[in-house]
Amino acid sequence: MIAGIIPARYASSRFPGKPLAKIEGKTMIRRVYEQAIKSKHLDKVVVATDDDRIYRHVKDFGGHAVMTRVNHPSGTDRCEEALEQLGGGFDYVINIQGDEPFIDPSQIDALATVLKADKVEIATLIIRVDNAEILLNTGEVKVVLNPAMEALYFSRTVIPFLKDVPFSEWHLHRNYYRHVGMYAYRADILKQLTKLPVSSLEKAESLEQLRWLEAGFRVKCVLTEHDSHCIDTPEDIEQVLKLMRKKTK
Q: For the chain, what is the domain count?
């Protein structure tokens, strides 16, 4: 059994009330939820929120929601509390980002398929980098892999460094990948992750997945062809809509 959990906080320094922001007539959280329930592999989809307005809104459009504590340090921790509230019976959890309203259900299914493989503890999505602008953007998290498609390291900087090659041409000489922020966990592993102390690498790069790598957990990476469109500010909504309209022309 696989639970799809969508963490949704109301508070945000750059975009307060983001889950309830309207995008062409529907709230962001409703769009995420409706995309998630199209997955072929999720047995239940639930929004995990800390705000009664979001909770009531999800219930009003017929969705499932649970109330969680306000003080969770990450979406992973919120997912774990939500899983506890759902009770037993779920072997896996997929943490679906609540600020990516145009997520493709096939991305969820790809993670679900990998989760069921032997010995997979954690899985996440990656996409190839095809231009220098994204490669050099410190807001985009890059990842290097071992031959088994497991993450060796995540970083905001470009890794590996290519000696004697101009920065603008690095992506032409090597396959680079960036992280697409959706995680999947075995249920027992999720509980272990929330008990880990913050690590030094995590502090340095502000990336919680580095805490897991430092603790010895393996993160399986799954290649996707679908780009991730995260909305962090009100201005991002129009930019994402423009991109989506271009793709449908």
A: 1
Angstrom distance (rounded) from CA 72 to CA 81: 9
* Residue 105 in domain: yes
CB 140 within 8 Å of CB 127: no
Q: How far apart are CA 47 and CA 103, in angstroms?
A: 15
Structure confidence at residue 248 (pLDDT): 57
The reported pLDDT for the residue numbered 246 is 61
Q: Record the pTM.
A: 0.91
pLDDT category of residue 227 using cuts at 50, 70 and 90? confident
CA dist., res. 230 & res. 208, Å (int): 18
Q: How far apart are CA 104 and CA 95, in angstroms?
A: 14
Q: Is residue 85 domain-resident? A: yes
Q: Which residues contact 9 (CB under 8 A, 6 or more apart)?
A: 19, 49, 50, 51, 78, 98
